[in-house]
Amino acid sequence: MVEGAAVLGALMLDAALGWPEGLYRRIGHPVGAFARVICGLERRWNLPDLSFSARRLRGVAAMIVLPVMVGGAAWGVETVAGRFAGSWSWLVIALVAWPALAQRSLYDHIVPVRRALAAGDLPAARKAVGRIVGRDTRELDEAGVARAGIESLAESFCDGVIAPLFWFVVAGLPGLWIYKAINTADSLIGHPEEPLRAYGWAAARIDDLANFVPARLSGVLICLAGGRGWRILWRDHARHASPNAGWSEAAMAGALGLRLAGPVHYDGVRADKPWIGDEGRCADAPAMRKAEGIYLRACLLAWLACALVTGGRTWLG
């Protein structure tokens, strides 16, 4: 099991630095390496002349190969650190875990959206939110931009913070990086449309399983950080198409006292998604600032929970 010092060290590094642009330009990001492997396997294995079953089976095989490769490498780093770094192994593990967390990145991406809205610059706000959401943003009004930003922050709180942190605490570096590989695979190939419907089935289902507990923890942390939202969390979490994303979005909608989700457009096609939350005031820049505050407090609660869990485990051990 990973030491509490390694967990908190990784959290502190991420909160203080994020993943610096200069570092990204020089060495990229580990997720980029995962993406190259995932896309390479998909090009070789997801062949159109194969049957649906054969493509699904190859997708299952890809989701065995990828975690084994990533988990094996992470286990090797953790083992070598423990053997050669001695009492400083926690620092090595924290440094290797640091890129997998996205607390700072999420915050740094949402703030420009809110600032542009607050300044009355709707085109800039649309452009900023277009960097973090997949929906069409060119025709969004102020409420639509704010709603998209808040939804992205709430959903990514699970994928980018709580889920990797959960698997780090549970299974050390292998758990953390296997989760990141699975989540990356889901985003790249876990789509229900052709030509990925069969091949990406395993990636989507495994990602659902990996996020099952973290998604519910995310909803609880948001409600605790916001001081309310429990009724909407319980009532509306199932209104989202994803079995997991609805938990954090419903919690945020309840904590803010507004509606999220609803109809959106993708590539010019309207998707009539159900609303999450009670009808009330429209999302706007002040609501986004409030969401940022809830997010930051929820992150601090996650830090506290990690300290308690890892510290208690050390004491019991």
From TrEMBL:
InterPro entries: Cobalamin_biosynth_CobD/CbiB. It is a multi-pass membrane protein. The chain crosses the membrane at residues 57-77, 84-101, 161-179, 294-316. Coiled coil: none annotated. Its main location: membrane. It comes from the Bacteria. It is found in: Cell membrane. The keyword Transmembrane helix applies. Keywords: Cell membrane, Cobalamin biosynthesis, Membrane, Transmembrane, Transmembrane helix. Pathway: Cofactor biosynthesis; adenosylcobalamin biosynthesis. The keyword S-adenosyl-L-methionine does not apply. Belongs to the CobD/CbiB family. Converts cobyric acid to cobinamide by the addition of aminopropanol on the F carboxylic group. This is Cobalamin biosynthesis protein CobD.
